[in-house]
Amino acid sequence: MPAWLVWVIVAAALSVAELLTLTVAVGLLAVAAVAASVTAALGVSAAGQAAAFAVAGGVSVAVVLPAVRRRRRAARPGPRSGVAALVGRSALVIEPVDAHHGQVRISAPGIDTEGGWAR
Fold first, then answer.
1. Spatial strand order in the sheet of 117-118
2. What is the pLDDT of residues 29-86, one digit of tens each?
3. Are residues 87 and 60 in the same domain?
């Protein structure tokens, strides 16, 4: 089996692992395996192929991965507000509550319920 085909199989396996785990690092290593496959197709020795994989993988993980992580952190939603902020909070039930009637007292930071009561 030619060396370039081995690298293509490695790249495919890493791509499947990326799809299953959703980690960017594995995808970057798949790209590095493609780079090694190209060097193998050009007739470079096994040491050169390994070097191409190591350099491409190292550079992509060192340069691309931090940028992707910064972008993911910036894309996270801010603090919850409105009704979503009340999910999981405790409340004092003032009278029986059903789908249409009832009162509860909510004490949560930043909640203005006109005198402390919410209907």
1. 91-93, 104-106, 117-118
2. 999 999 999 999 999 999 999 999 999 999 998 999 888 888 888 777 777 777 777 7
3. no
Which tokens is 115 given?
């005198």
Q: Both 94 and 119 in a single domain?
A: yes
Domain enclosing residue 32, as ranges:
3-74
Which two three-digit tokens encode residue 111?
């909640």
Residues 119, 95: contact at Cβ < 8 Å? no
pLDDT tens across 67-83, in order?
A: 888 888 877 777 777 77
Four-residue CA torsion sign, 113, 115, 118, 119: negative
Task: Tell me how far apart the alpha carbons of residues 69 and 48 are, in angstroms, rounded to a whole number.
Answer: 30
Q: Which of 25, 20, 19, 103 lies closest to 59 in space, CA to CA?
A: 25
Strand partners for 117: 105
Q: Are residues 68 and 110 in the same domain?
A: no
Whether residues 57 and 13 fall in one domain: yes
In a shared domain, residues 52 and 108: no
pTM: 0.61
> One-letter amino acid identity for 51?
A
